[in-house]
Design a protein that fits this description.
Homing Intron 3 (I-Ppo) Encoded Endonuclease, Chain A, two-stranded antiparallel ribbon, 2 domains, single chain, alpha+beta, 6 strands
């Protein structure tokens, strides 16, 4: 059976739209790790912009107009085109610039507790029978290079 729903209808079925057109349209479906909606292989806010406002020229970004900085908002009236520099300026002005570190990173294999144990074991090698960094790497399922960075405080510097 063929799905007769248009792509616009599919998109709008994943949005909570207020009767007041000036309010945010909230994306209620899947989001990426940064909290932006995902739709049809793209950002939902980008899809919304193109659906209601037209194509996005190459090299430009879809940004949220002040005061709307809601990552889940897909209201086309709250979106505008800008450069990467515009995006960075917006982030700085709104104090939204925050870098993930340590176990907050989605790809992190370690916890802060693991890192403290690694440093403790390396600093007390004889007591723990650790001869090489590769021994610790095998124990924690990471590379020797990562162990080296940890014990020299070049990574996980925040703890």
């Amino acid at each position: 059976m063929h799905n007769s729903k248009s792509i616009k209808d599919r998109f709008l079925s994943k949005v909570s739209i207020s009767e007041d057109r000036n309010k945010c349209w909230i994306w209620v479906a899947n989001c990426n790790i940064w909290g932006y909606g995902k739709f049809n292989g793209n950002g939902a806010h980008r899809f919304s912009y193109e659906l209601f406002n037209g194509p996005i020229p190459q090299g430009l970004f879809v940004l949220h107009k002040p005061p709307c900085f809601n990552r889940k908002c897909v209201n086309p009236d709250h979106l505008y085109l800008g450069t990467q520099q515009d995006n960075m300026n917006d982030m700085k002005e709104q104090e939204r610039q925050r870098y993930l570190e340590g176990e907050e990173l989605p790809q992190s294999k370690l916890t802060e507790e693991n890192v403290l144990v690694i440093r403790h074991m390396w600093n007390n090698k004889k007591r723990f029978g650790v001869a090489k960094q590769s021994d610790l790497a095998d124990m924690f399922g990471i590379s020797q290079c990562q162990i080296s960075m940890i014990v020299r405080n070049l990574s996980w510097k925040h703890i």
